[in-house]
## 1
Amino acid sequence: MSRAHTSGQKVAFLGATRGMGRALARQMAERGDALFLLGRDDEELARSASDLEARGAESVEHAHCDLEDPTSFGPALDAATEALGGLDTVVVTAGIFATQQALEEDSELLARLLRVDFTHSVLFCEQARRRLLAQGGGNLCVFSSVAGDRGRKPIVLYGASKAGLSRYLEGLDHRYRAEGLRVLTVKPGFVRTGMTAGLPEPPFAGDPEDVARSVLKAMDRGDAVVYAPAPWRAVMAVIRHLPRAVMRRVEF
Ligand SMILES: NC(=O)c1ccc[n+]([C@@H]2O[C@H](COP(=O)([O-])OP(=O)(O)OC[C@H]3O[C@@H](n4cnc5c(N)ncnc54)[C@H](OP(=O)(O)O)[C@@H]3O)[C@@H](O)[C@H]2O)c1
């Protein structure tokens, strides 16, 4: 059985170059994890690797992996497994966002978002979970969103991709937990990152470092779902139970 609840883990990380991924990778580095970064921009990966090494990571290497290109997934995860000498944890924070208006106006952008945030994210996770299960288990931590919890006017399309992703991850947890696969679905609320720059800030907006702390705790506990920042658990409990007639009237 691979290590699951300790520091010093072997982690393959897709999305560590920015935002919540960068904050989470930094906290993993500070506790001495060995990190293998996957991403689409080699220069950004090299820059992030130096930063994480300086923060205490046991080792940091990187390989090319583009969520728009599924042929890159297997080789990237194989390179990570070989370099780390096995895998304890795979983290996926990579994803894209666009407003409802932009997605309604541009069907190519919509197709790309649905591919990256749903279809290709699932294909990547399938490759990751096969490798983790082949070694007896491990953590698969994937960033979905509160946007997938309910059909809402401002995020119909992005929300649909995250709803599909959340449901897939829930199913994986049910199917493979007994074999040692611990799937953690992260559901951030509004978090200040490059992704949300310029968007109006709702109440309970949070910072990537707080999200990262909650995610690490949840992963170490073996939780299946974590809402972060914490108030979003209660906010979404209310929104999930609002009647449709109310959802048709409200604008959030
Ligand atoms: N911020 C929020 O309020 C919020 C709320 C709910 C859910 N989320 C979700 O949380 C996750 C992280 O969000 P964030 O705000 O931290 O985003 P972010 O700051 O924009 O960072 C996104 C990360 O994804 C990577 N990425 C994007 N497209 C990629 C591709 N085709 N191949 C490989 N990597 C790619 C980026 O790499 P590069 O360096 O190459 O650009 C970057 O590391 C996303 O899944 C997002 O949908 C965010």
## 2
Amino acid sequence: MVVKEIGTPEAARFRQDINRRIAGQVEKCYQCGKCSAGCPIANEMDLMPNQVIRLVQIGLKDKATHCRSIWLCAGCVTCTTRCPQEVEIASVMEAVRHVAIEEGVEPPPEVRHTATFTEVFLRSVRRHGRIFEPGMVMGFNLRSCQPMKDAEKGPKMFLKGKLNLLPHRVKDRGPVRRIFQRLVPKL
Ligand code: SF4
Ligand code: SF4
């Protein structure tokens, strides 16, 4: 089967975009599969990590940004540490996910909550420099249409001093903002 996107300027642009975001080279991957063999989430994924890398290499943005795997990746970096070619696979998974978020790609229904959590988490870090748990949980519950989820745990955690009602922002949020501007400008 001939895929008409391969070899087009758009395909090259996608590959270059991912390389820029990870400050590396996906071209170095020679498809040995070691990354996928060690991935603890692989049995839930629709595409193995090495297959996602291959899609990036050949520039198939649509296929890469629409797969379930980029939302399920836990960022554990087992794949990255195993790669004989020092490809930053965990970062590639994240970079493709960022492209999907920027382009408004709807995650598959079965991982929609995971995608929502990722987005709410990143927004909290961008805003405060670290996560603000109550705000993040409320944001997630509202966005995922389950407003009372885990609500009973809030008072208990508060009484044990585990919950701050106001965010503790980092002193200098400039570097965090710059990271977001460079990596996920449209979040
Ligand atoms: S371990 Fe590295 S070289 Fe091997 S398939 Fe994965 S990314 Fe490619
Ligand atoms: S970082 Fe993601 S792709 Fe890599 S081993 Fe962990 S879960 Fe799998």
## 3
Amino acid sequence: MKYTKLGNSELSVSRICMGCMGFGNAATGQHSWTVDEAQSREIIKRGLELGINFFDTAIVYQNGTSEQFLGRALRDFAKRDEVVVATKFTPRTQEEIDDGIPGQQHIENYINQSLKNLNMEYVDLYIYHMWDYHTPMEEIMEGLHNIVKAGKARYIGISNCFAWQLAKANFYARERHLTEFGSIQGHYNLIAREEEREMAPFCRDQNIAMTPYSALAGGRLSKRPCETSKRLVEDSYAKFKYDSTAEADGKIIARVAEIADKRGVSMTEVALAWLLTKVTAPVVGATKISHVEGAARAVDFALTDNEINYLEELYVPHALVGVMAQNGKQKAGNVV
Ligand SMILES: NC(=O)c1ccc[n+]([C@@H]2O[C@H](COP(=O)([O-])OP(=O)(O)OC[C@H]3O[C@@H](n4cnc5c(N)ncnc54)[C@H](OP(=O)(O)O)[C@@H]3O)[C@@H](O)[C@H]2O)c1
């Protein structure tokens, strides 16, 4: 495994971040395809053996059970100060808004719950999961600074935002000596490259770490057309994100398979090796031990410049999908 600094922070992270959205109690959460605690523990343990020290979860993943599984596994298989744990909080609920709970209190409540789920005293990276148009940005930045000061989070990151939103928040924080976002978790992979337009150059300029999610397009960049899985069949949210561009994307995926065959590696290695040339640490999901092994191998696999050009050649701009499509529909600067 190789390691790198997470942006301007002191955190040394593995080049692969283990995404934990696929871990959790399938009976209670939003996904039917997640793996149970025993399987999750095996995958986490194997990831640690392979040198992965960076883990990403969220309070909303399977009603907190992803955080719980991760926390228990890390407690049993790792030392707390040798792993980097990231979790995320979502916007205020309508109930919280109706009850007059301000952004600062919302963040305090959510991190307390996440720390309880993880059974940890602090997280290394606390991530604003998606832009909250119903809570003033000032309250979010103050609330995040408060939990850093309290020692509940070492650093903060953001996810699913536009570059202008990250710039606005960080320059607000900088002027007031508050904690700035040090990482962005956006949707970025070989068939979703909209982050290259504004976000990637901004991050390079500011040394903000890019830790993109769905690095394998929910498995589409790892599987041949003949292969399937429980998730490919049941993950309707991912289908909604990728199905409408499947024909054009299929041609890029075919090139991933072609290079994999030529070089004698898996498609996962090719797709991740490409992303590793662009970002700090992709967040990669796994529902099997072999998945995390493939991701770890990608770190030692290098594509030639010609192969990179060949993989990039067919991409055409895509509409934003998933959370970013909703973000795009909101009015800039609108706080209700
Ligand atoms: N911030 C956000 O809004 C956000 C959104 C989504 C995800 N995330 C984070 O990003 C992580 C990764 O996202 P993701 O799960 O959507 O995407 P992903 O990493 O693109 O896809 C993971 C899926 O790829 C398949 N896979 C992985 N390695 C494979 C291999 N070697 N061979 C065949 N298939 C392989 C598995 O699919 P099968 O199970 O089908 O085999 C696995 O579930 C999540 O766990 C979460 O931590 C964040």
## 4
Amino acid sequence: MTNNESSLLVAEGGKRTFHKDLTVPDPIPAPAFGRVEKILQSARLFRYSGPTAEESETAMLEKEFAEYLGVKYALAVSSCSSAIFVGLLSVGIEKGDKVLLPAFTFTAVPSSIVHAGAEPVLVECDDNYCINIADLERKMIEHPDAKVFLLSHMRGHVSDMGRVVELCEKHNVILMEDAAHSLGNRWGGQHSGTFGKIGCFSFQSTKMINAGEGGMLATDDDDIIARAIIYSGAYEKTWAKHITVSEKVAEYQNQLPAYNVRMSEVTAAIARPQIPIIEQKGARFRHNYFRLANILNRSPHIDVPERVENEVPVPNSIQFNLRGMTRERIRRFVDTMGQEGIKIAVFGLGEDNARCFWNWRYTDASNDELPQTEKMLRTACDLRLPVYLDVEDIDTMGGLIVRAIDYVTTNMKNRQPAS
Ligand SMILES: Cc1ncc(COP(=O)(O)O)c(C=O)c1O
């Protein structure tokens, strides 16, 4: 890009028009600071080192998280990936079993399946980033031995859960949800992550709860929670320091391996004060998302797909599909936005995006033919919308994106098709 081209977008005086740094995560609420300090002073950073469950930040986080979701049990772990891994083992996944999952997700998800010794089977996704229901049923029929469907609500896009649950029941497949991006999202009035046997959540910094790292497994099942607690690293009756625990846990003591993927007290102390603000953050995310979507949809080259019916989303990022643009124009668009301080990624544009299934070379599934998902990934854009953005920021971003698209589609020669 020449300076002349870029100055079509940047403000007078050659300065960037957008000033907030979108790589900064959502802020940590003030009460977390005091709690962390108290833990540091006590030196009791290990979840089982305190005298009682009620005095453990981790056990209390599990209780409050379960109450928020309206489930019986929650188990705090080191990450959402750990929750998925432990969850797969807890529902009975064994070496060589097949696990269905969307072809559009983050590499950590198929990795957890591989870690559990299972084989990922990818299912097509639609242009709205949700699971393709027809392909899901096709894959269930093609792989009658698939035990689990692990549905990632990727980037917080929750699929038609009525259809998903119906298909899992019809084909006798256990539903697990990867709700890493969808904490607070409801479909048909019900929390995402509570439709299947297990819901898995992430507290990594770009998620609804920012604790740096951390994850949560949620379930109503007495047996699953007992197994999961042992797998996560409870030993010698340390499970007595859990509040959301079933009596069955004693049966599994010393019967299952302990993978030690527990959460630390510091992480729990940072996460806990964020539960009461989920609804407030969710409302702000929704407002910003729909305002930006309206602006972007004015461009003939942008399609922000309609959300699925019955979904109340909590989107802390926006995805949109570029239409009728060459690969070169898409690249130029991304570069232009980068110069403005707005980092937009097109999933399938670079060499190594971890959300493109063809880059998951550790599994044979990366060679699968998934034309629909591939086509979507080649032109789908991804943009973070952290909670500190205000209406003015959203309008500035929307205006810049539309102008940049306008510029690259009218001022560049068409050379190479996008897909
Ligand atoms: C869709 C999805 N699922 C699962 C994970 C794994 O989360 P964690 O980093 O907590 O292991 C991620 C990570 O960003 C993700 O994007």
